[in-house]
Amino acid sequence: MWPSFSDMKRRSFLKKCGAAALLPLSSRGLFARSPFRRQRPSDPGWPSKEAWKRLNDAVGGNLITVDFPIAACTSAGGSADCKKVLESLKNPYYIGDQPGLTQTLGWVDAWATKPSVYAVAARNADDIAAAVNFARENNLRLVVKGGGHSYQGTSNAPDSLLIWTRHMHDVEMHAAFVPHGCEGTHPPQRAATLGAGAIWMQAYDAVTTKAGAYVQGGGCTTVGVAGLIQSGGFGSFSKHYGLAAAGLLEAEIVTADGKVRIANACTNQDLFWALKGGGGGSFGAVSKLTLRVRELPEFAGGAEFRIKAASDGEFQRLIRQFVSFYREALFNDHWGEQVHIAADNTLEVSMVFIGLDTEQSRKVWQPFLDWLARSPASYSIESPPEIGSMPARHWWDVDWRRDRQQHVFNADPRPGSGPNNVWWTGDGGQVGWVVYGFESLWLPASLLQSDSQELLANALFKASRLGEVELHFNKGLAGAPQEAIEAARETATNPAVLSAFALAIVADGQGPAYVGVPNHEPDVVSGQKAANSVRRCMSELRAIAPNGGAYVSESNYFEADWQHSYWGSNHSRLAEIKKKYDPAGLFFVHNGVGSEQWSADGFTKL
Ligand SMILES: Cc1cc2nc3c(=O)[nH]c(=O)nc-3n(C[C@H](O)[C@H](O)[C@H](O)COP(=O)(O)OP(=O)(O)OC[C@H]3O[C@@H](n4cnc5c(N)ncnc54)[C@H](O)[C@@H]3O)c2cc1C
Question: What is the pLDDT of residue 511?
Answer without folding.
Answer: 87
